[in-house]
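User: Here's a protein and a ligand (iron/sulfur cluster). What would the complex look like?
Assistant: Let me lay out the input and then the predicted complex.
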Amino acid sequence: MRILLYNPDNGVTRNFMPHLWMFLLQSLTPPGHEVLLIDGNAQPLDEAGIAQYVRDQNIALVGIGAMTRMIAKAYRMADAVRAVGVPVVMGGPHVTEMADEALGRAGGARHADAVALGEADETWPRIVEDAAHGTLQEIYAPVDEFGQERKPSLQSYPLIPWDKINLDQFNLVPKMATRALQRVGEGWGTFRIIPMESGRGCPYGCEFCTVTGFFGDSIRFRTNESVVNELLLLKAQARSERGQMAVFFIDDNFAINVKRTKSLLRDIIAAGAQVNWVAQISANLLRDEELIDLIAASGGKWIFIGMESIDPANLAAVNKGFNKPGEYAVVLERLALRNVYAITSFIFGMDNDTTGVAERTLQEIRTWPPGLPIFGLLTPLPATPLYKRLEAAGRLTRPKHWQEFIPFEMAHTPSKMTIAEAHAEVKYGWASSYSPEAMAQAVESLRDKPLGYRINIFIARMCFRGIYFPLMGPWAWTKLIFQNRRTIFSLVRAGFAAWRDSPVATAPGAARVPPPLPTDVTGL
Ligand code: B12
Ligand code: SF4
């Protein structure tokens, strides 16, 4: 049987990284079936396109996974597939919470023939076999023989054959530059960010988060050996194509068990399996200096920190009182000392927020080492404690906000400001943090660091800006480059100065050698 796994795009931004679930389920598919993957972020498709593809490729089962914000598109694509007579199974965080909606039991249209609830590692092989025999059930739940919910162990994690998967659609280097860049430094013909999990689960239960409900508070880890082997495979693959590979450890809280994280990082270092990596770690777990040393030594470059707010009252209200705004600066300084930087995520529209919250937050941010601040709005995702609280209080203005997804738009009324004011705060946060002046300031604040770090922060900022101000075409990029021409010029000038003073430039025949790209240019 030929199976298509499809992840819709969100219609706003392009994801820089493929979705792990597709590769994982592909690896867990029983033998005898062929699995094709389409990530809508890399290969955009519309309803007619997917219907045509399914017919042309003789697909017998389509699996669709989506977060809440992509679910409306996911349903439209599922409808198009079902209209050509091919069954659809859906999975992921949204349909796990809203299975009746997907199955048409909540008063609306039916979009899926079957729904996989929760983690599908153990149910997927059964789904495939049932589909092959024409006996697809409506609901697949991960339960044991007593009907109790069962969380898959990650101890026997499958090998994802990254070296055999065609990853062309996820190469971030433009095709036309591949040949030339293969010859630069260690090779930059390809650059991919690969999602990898080392563990699952987070017990903290922040009010707005789906994770504790979905993955449960049972924390599970892969073996160190399995993670290290996957890193070695990726490293070898990058070397063989004269390209670069970075890893995003998508664990919800990569250091949730600090002892285990340290042991993993030590094993990575011992095996020489370092690649540049990014991971999500909550600020309270970054108090440990030894952990930060190991992060830096094992290739860690960016740490995503869910700071959410600089107001302790806000944090307490969403059950995230373990975040201590007073220690944010110290944590960031400690990371920066080891040349590790932070993606700092903030939420506006929280119950204690008043107008001016963006500027107050920015005043703090400006005192920190440069990083990548991102701003969002408090969003009641289905089945979260936040959703239930707002629903009970009658504060949801768009209770089914996912049916008509509008980016950066609230679905409930904040307590101390209007919805429009909250939107204006987010806009202000992005515009001020990613203006040409702010970019120049971030680069300038690293003047004592090697050039690679300055280029790194600049490129990362240009890309992150695209989350709020989508950079969808060459014109948008040209305009952005023009606006930031002074910073770009200063970096190019510094690059040539460094090259001119280097021993390479003064060696005989040096004029024919292109300046090497500074190592760590992407930082990722
Ligand atoms: C990595 C990640 C991202 C990446 C992007 C995704 C990517 N390319 O991987 C980045 C950092 C960009 C990101 C951004 C956002 N994310 Co995010 N992200 C994650 C994270 C941490 C890991 C996802 C993952 O790969 N998990 C591991 C895999 C194995 O698990 P999984 O995807 O759930 O798949 C399993 C099952 O769900 C099931 N399954 C999934 N799909 C399918 C399909 C079929 C057919 C079947 C049978 C089974 C199945 O089987 C899999 C194996 O068990 C999750 C949290 C989490 N732990 O999952 C949040 C999470 C998915 N993100 C979330 C959110 C809210 C966002 C943002 C909206 C945040 C924001 N405010 O900006 C943005 C939006 C991004 C966008 N594209 O629009 C929420 C989604 C909640 C929801 N109800 O939709 C999550 C759950 C975190 C949370 N705090 O609640 N995210
Ligand atoms: S710490 Fe992060 S993953 Fe854990 S519950 Fe809170 S927001 Fe979710």
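Summary: The first helix runs from residue 20 to 27.
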